[in-house]
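In line with agreed milestones, the collection of sequences with tokenised folds has grown. One record among many is set out beneath this paragraph:
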Amino acid sequence: MYLKIDLLRHGESELSHTLRGSLDDALTAQGWQQMLCSIDQSQTQSLSQSLHWDVVFSSPLQRCRIFAEHIVKEQDIPLILDESLQEMHFGDWEGQSIQQLYEQFPETLADFWQKPTQTTLPNAETMHQFHLRISTAMSNIQQLMQLNGWQSALVITHGGVIKLLKCMVLQQPLDDVLKMTAELGQLSSFRWDTLTQTLALQELT
């Protein structure tokens, strides 16, 4: 038996081009449209007439949550907010622009991009802590889906979360996590095999 899990990254937000992490900034108008367009495109590509989910899981941060509330109202399905689906916490660097960090801490930032498992930012969550948190969150989602008989779920979350999951699914080293793709507003489709307890990427069909 397979469970379908679509992950939608939030669109552009007010603090884009910074390490937002757990900061609670709002979507811009363009960010909202990016998410809508991604859903619309997926509906067009789908063999079924509409893209429907049984449940929506979302990070509680408003750049994810407000769009999640829109979807559940539109489709009349449950919404489950889960703090474990939040972005990686970047500690003292949260809210600072990438450009500013490059200018002030070029070596540390370069080390973080290249070997995030070996480089922890000041007072930040480690990559291993992040990995454990997201692995646990996805396991909990799978268990809740099976318990409630839900076959398909939409998970609205953050770029780091989706990149980490792609890295895990493709069986790449954790140090390659930042090489994965997760564009603003992009929808990625996964399939959970309940027999083998494994997650796999799949094309949206």
Remarks:
- The radius of gyration is 17 Å.
